[in-house]
Amino acid sequence: MTTSNSNINASSKNRDFLSRTYFTLCALALFSPCTAMAAGWEIDPVRVELSPHQQTAAITLKNGSDQPTSIQIEAVAWSQTEGKDIYIPTKELLVSPPIVTIAPQAEQIIRVALRRQADASNELTYRINLQELPVKPAPGFTGVQVALRISLPVFIKPQNGEAEPKATWKVSRVSDKQVKVTVQNTGNAHIQVSDFALYAQGMTEAIASESGSSYVLSGQTHEWVLPTSPSEKLTIKHLRLKAYTDADNFDTELVLGKP
Length: 259
What we know:
Number of domains: 2
Number of helices: 2
Oligomer: single chain
Radius of gyration: 21 Å
Distance between the termini: 15 Å
Number of strands: 17
Helix content: under 10%
Low-confidence stretches: 1-38
CATH class of the largest domain: Mainly Beta
Structural class: mainly beta
Largest sheet: 7 strands, mixed
Order of helices and strands: HHEEEEEEEEEEEEEEEEE
Mean pLDDT: 84
């Protein structure tokens, strides 16, 4: 178990991570990862960060298609329990307007405002859900209509201005062919894990890996049970973890625990 990490160039990390975040948002479309781009949506920014000194923000929605699109917008409070996301409708975050119709090749500005005080010491977390409303199909249309649903994270820094995650990683053997990777966030802010891999000492080929995006909110724990290849390398006691997050890159040694 360890919390050690090595920093990387901040500007390069942020550019790479925003790119990864964009594709994560596309994957939240209801039917396929490519649907959001096919529908012609452009969203800027892809996540909202507010603070006690900046309690409002603007989101730009662009309809790049040749048809008008209507979108319903809802704010929800976001928490986690036992690694599962929980969403509850909230009035603490104002999103205006709640419903928009955007003409072809036009833009719409969405205003976001915090309606409560920031927490004294912990980050607050919300999400803004954008749901495309179905339109009446043209006469003779026989295809399948696809409605998009995209969710944007919103983070509110605490009043003391200090918001940092603190990640502790562990790895344990589940069976001869599986390992469990656990990250515990004991900090006062979220961490977003983009991908990670485990290596036997001295080896360049990963024995287990995970790609995708997982948020771990303050005080929460997330687990992944992963297949290993090849399984005989689990006889060793130490593994090397390389992980990419929106806070730091981690490159550290872990002790392989028992089931």
